[in-house]
Amino acid sequence: MSALGLLFRDVLRRDRARLACALLGVAAAAALLAWAVGLAATTTAQCKPLAETLGRPFDCWVATGRASAAAPKGSGMQSLTHGSPVKMVPRAVADAVKASPDVESVLATTVFRCRLDWRPEGRPLQGSGVGGGIAPVRDFPECPYPDGLAAGRWPRADAPEPEFAISPRAFGEDGLRDAPPVGTKVPVVTPTGRVEATICGYLAETIRPVGGFPTMFASDTLADAAALAETGGLCNLMLIRLKPFRSPDALAETVRTVSPDDDAATLVTRQGLLRQLRSDATNNLLFQLPLLVALACVATLCMIVNALCVGLEQNRVRYARLRALGMTSRQLMALVSREACFLAGVGGVVGFGVGVGALAAFVRANPLAFPDGLALGWVTPVAVAALLALSAGLALCVPLRRAARLGPCELRVRPEAWRVAHPIWRGGLALLCLAPIVLTVLPFTPNPWLRSAWFLVALPLAVFGLMAFTRPLMALCEWVLARPFGAVLRLRPELLRGVLTRSADRNARMALTLTAGLGAFFAIHIWGASLTDPFIPSRDLPPAIVSFLPNGVSQTCADALVKNLPVRPFFAEQYRLSDADFTAIGERAGRLPKQNNILLVGTAGETGVTVTEMFARQCRIGIGDTFSIQRRDAAGTVHALSLTVTAIVRCNWHLVTARAGLRARNGAPFGTLGPVFVGLDVAKAWDPEQAARVRFLWLDALPPAQDTAALYSAGDLLELRLQRAAEADPEPWRGRGFGPGANAAVPNAVLHLRDEISEGTLAHSSELLGELARIPLWSLLILSFGFVSLLAANVRAMAGELRTLHAIGMTRGQLGRFLLAQALLLCVVAAVLSLLLGLSIGWGFTGWTLAWMPFGGLPTVLVLPWARLAEGLAVLLAATLVVTPLPIAFLVRALLRR
Q1: Is 447 among the domain residues?
Q2: Which helix (H) or strand (E) holds 470?
Q3: Per-residue pLDDT reduced to its tens digit, 645-675
Q4: Between β-strands 567-577 and 626-632, what pairing exists: parallel, antiparallel or unpaired?
Q5: What is the per-residue pLDDT across 849-879, written as a single tens digit (0 to 9) for each?
Q6: Does 713 reside within a domain?
Q7: Rounded Cα–Cα distance for residues 193 and 83 (Å)
Q8: φ, ψ dihedrals at 873, nearest 5°
Q9: What does the radius of gyration of the chain's CA atoms come to, in whole angstroms?
């Protein structure tokens, strides 16, 4: 064995504690890395078998729009509001498909979008709710999917009462465990109205229909109520089975040739479905995978840098002697490199095994999500090895530089000074480096690409500023906290002054290492809270909104409700801006908005035209400015209305208008520039056709209640009263497609509480942020193992002084508390640095995100979620108190035994 090999073996024997701590940290980071990359590979590998099973037993299908595997968006299904355009497959395309020699059979049907007013806890579900595509069972004598039914029976077309079979996946990922039992009556909101229907069966949980395929199969009474018979003999979905050994390519070319435009009809094949599935899987993985990989690599880099630098400092005199005896700097650098390869190799192998084992257990516990099982492929081990090698290579930059500078002159041991001067102006200059990233939130340019370039330049400058501020901060913490920490730990304050700055490099590295994990946690929560705040409904909005969707109640019924209840009818409809005004807005703002419509809200008592700050900020509109909206009537005539802004208010309107169904009705897009409030008489005179039915009520005051549960109970009673009033409407809606189903024209009355929407928004935001923020917390726990090697190095550096203190009366307990004080002071430094990092990056990333969001004009509000920040600090303190006591006891015992 070479001399270098013998020396490396001696290092392994002498520095077991330091290397074991580093190996544990690297293994944990490698396990996190293996989990992230392996989960990505396994998820992607499920796409091919899933594409082969989706849509069985059909080989291809023709749909209007773009059918996908993810959601029924763009699949041509009619929305919940009567009057929305229904996209049908052109008759020429349908005839060409049926006449194709490659086709064995064609099943043509019409799929409409409907929603179930299902309330598992007595409250309306927020978000999209439970629903799917509904098709008449007369087109499907039996279940079209091979796995059939999991419970109940197939609905009968001639059933006297409305009934339907549905996929249990509509109620949640747990399938039948989340779904109500067979025989439950559930209100079904169809494009024409509300129908009380019975669930007679559930499809098998293994069935995952393609987006646009029916997930509900209705009897004739329910299908007629949904106006499925009023299609003029056309369909919007053609399920095709090809003859044996026939390819769908020729049929796809026929559809493209016959179809009048690209969106009129599309032939979807399994190859196209596979591409869509892989694209969706990639987009889902991009949510967490980059953060997981980045934090795992940072944790690996920090652990290796700390371990190698501490090793060089511990063995400084020993290596200096070897250099004096003839060892070259290249050989010392080779020794350090071998140590880094050992840590990355052994830690990577152990961590990879642990991560893959945990992933395998997770995959086995979720067979529905991973039907093909664990599939790592060659990408996972190669990617993990490459990322670990990259991290180890980057980690070698600092230790190799120090090893190259270590020479025989280091034999002259110089005692470290207790105090190191850190001028205040140096810390101030370091903090100035954080200014550019904070300025990202300013509206200096409407171009998101320029803002992104600014952010990429400001981010490394902010990191450099934090690194430069670390040493002045350590000196400040020693000066401020020496007395209180000394009083708590029963130590003299003089002992704690200089305890960090004495070995500033070593302690600064540890503080920055902890900051990498805790700072990311803080940044995620500050970014999320600042982005969520503009979406929390404003207190200026009404306490509740009542919606009568899809087709509203008559004016007579609304007048009776106004007399008996504290409600006011209001008007809400989306209209396009005139082309000239839209172009002018783009010229003033620097770019065209993504939406070209406003939500006109007519309320009683409004005398002018009031717009929101978001609308005014995005469109560069002020008081006194004028803009025009337009609409087209049934005869095709274009009408215009000129509006002059009289007031601007701050109002967070997004989620209230979405949950209450004020937007995306009558074929209007979901996005809008914002609400514009006008008088109710103005709105009615502008669009009398839409104003003929009252779809929304403005609740002035909530029923008196002692607590939230009582409020919900009172709200349920009020909602029941409103529903009965809608059912007793003397002038029910009777439009095209009204069928003989029970209560077919009765709207669905829903009470939308403003505070309930706020709570749901905060809960959903916390859930999403919790998934992201959990990752840096794991990395923080990994990085906290660095305390062991840090304390060992500090004890070795101060061994003589600590023995002297013990000789003149310092007890073992006081020595242990002295070392614990070092760790706690480092926690304080890391906490302050993490808060600065979280504020700068979280706030700057907020400005960058707002620049790319489809909602223009959102305010840049800095929100500090103190409860979440306190959780991160508690995790840091708990990790310190768990990791440090045993190493401190061992180090003190070993020190005094020598």
Answers
A1: no
A2: helix 448-489
A3: 999 998 888 888 888 888 888 778 888 998 9
A4: antiparallel
A5: 777 776 777 887 888 889 889 999 999 999 8
A6: yes
A7: 12
A8: -65, -40
A9: 34
Range of the domain at 559: 538-752
349-385 pLDDT, tens per residue? 999 999 899 889 988 888 777 878 888 888 888 888 9
578 located within any domain: yes
State the DSSP code for 534: G
What's the chain's average pLDDT?
82
Length of the chain equals 898
What DSSP element (H or E) covers 218?
strand 216-218
Please provide the DSSP assignment of 566-635 as one string.
Answer: SEEEEEEEEEEEPHHHHHHHHHHHSS--S--EEEEEEETT--S-EEEHHHHHHHT--TT-EEEEEEE-TT
Q: Where are the alpha helices (DSSP H) in 396-434?
A: 397-405, 424-432
Reply yes or no on whether the pLDDT at 831 is more than 90. Answer: yes
- Residue 135's DSSP bridge partners are 217
Name, in order, each residue with C-beta under 8 angstroms of 132's C-beta and a sequence gap of 6 or more. 72, 113, 114, 166, 167, 170, 214, 215, 216
Kindly list the distances between the CA atom of residue 581 and the CA atoms of 348, 672, 682, 856, in Å, as whole numbers in the listed order: 61, 15, 21, 17
Kindly state whether residue 592 falls inside one of the protein's structural domains: yes
> Per-residue confidence at 154, pLDDT binned at 50, 70, 90?
very high
Alpha-carbon dihedral sign for residues 661, 664, 666, 672? positive
**Is there a contact between 242 and 4 (Cβ–Cβ < 8 Å)?**
no
Q: Count up the domains in the chain and report the number.
A: 1
Per 3-state DSSP, the chain is made up of helix, strand and coil in percentages (nearest 5) of 55, 15, 35
| Interatomic CA distance for residues 348 and 617, integer angstroms | 52
**SS3 sequence of 133-167:** EEEEHHHCCCCCCCCCEEEECCCCCCCCCCEEEEC
Burial class (CB in 10 A: 0-12, 13-18, 19+), 244: exposed
From the number of C-beta atoms within 10 Å of its C-beta (0-12, 13-18, 19+), residue 446 rates as middle
